[in-house]
Amino acid sequence: MKLDVITLDGGSAGSVDLGDEIFGLEPRADILHRVVRWQRAAAQQGTHKAKTRTETSYSTKKIYRQKGTGGARHGDRNAPIFRKGGIYKGPVPRSHAHDLPKKFRKLGLRHALSSKAQTGNLVVIDDTALEQPKTGALAKKVKDLGWKRALVIDGSEVNENFARAAANIEGLDVLPSQGANVYDILRRDTLVITKAGVEALEARLK
């Protein structure tokens, strides 16, 4: 598929051919869902913790005699049945990450790129070069281009001035091509890729 290339000022910069095997697939929600779940699970901290009966601060003395009370046979106040006692099988620090084949991850990224192309929310720009890292100037260009919630994917490295200028603009994320991922692509309304970014993504996903 062929897409027009624009500049940051909104001018025309020719066109680019996008490979159908990456940008022309029919997006599948089940594939995107599995990859996003894999990403979010790996990002989850897993630092939740509850105290067991060996960690609560009550005395370990037997609270009353074993027989003759007519009540249950308890040992100490740390038992889970008591208020402020230990938690039985509570959460412990662990990793929530699970495996997903590398081929499937690549497939998910192809479907995410194709979904943006299919809905008309894919924009290709010439480059992100800025003379000075001025947030105000870049914010005006972004507003004029109509990007409200956008992800910009550059080549192997992001232009330093552009990255610094974009840092304080709400709703604008910037990533190098190696950092492109399904979750960040789907959570933004507009996907903006530089020509260098297109070449890097095609080399990565072919």
Question: What labels would you give this structure?
Answer:
single chain, 206 residues, alpha/beta, Ribosomal Protein L4, Chain: A, six-stranded mixed β-sheet, 7 helices
Molecular structure report:
This protein has 7 helices and 6 strands; from the N terminus they run ββαααβαβαβαβα. The chain has about 210 residues and is an alpha/beta fold. A 6-stranded mixed beta sheet has the order 2-1-3-6-4-5. About 35% of the residues lie in helices and about 15% in strands. The radius of gyration is 27 Å and the shape is elongated. The protein starts with a strand and ends with a helix. The model has no long low-confidence stretch (mean pLDDT about 95). The chain has 2 domains: about 1-45 and about 100-205, 3-Layer(aba) Sandwich (Ribosomal Protein L4, Chain: A), CATH 3.40.1370.10; about 50-90, no CATH class. GO terms for molecular function: rRNA binding; structural constituent of ribosome. It comes from Tranquillimonas rosea. Belongs to the universal ribosomal protein uL4 family.
Q: Which outline best applies?
A: elongated
Rg result: 27 Å
Number of distinct beta strands: 6
Helix/strand class: alpha/beta
What is the N-to-C order of secondary-structure elements (H for helix, E for strand)?
Answer: EEHHHEHEHEHEH
Numbering strands along the chain, what is their spatial order in the largest sheet? 2-1-3-6-4-5
Low-confidence stretches: none
Mean pLDDT over the full residue set? 94
What is the CATH architecture annotation of the largest domain?
Answer: 3-Layer(aba) Sandwich
Strand content: 5-15%
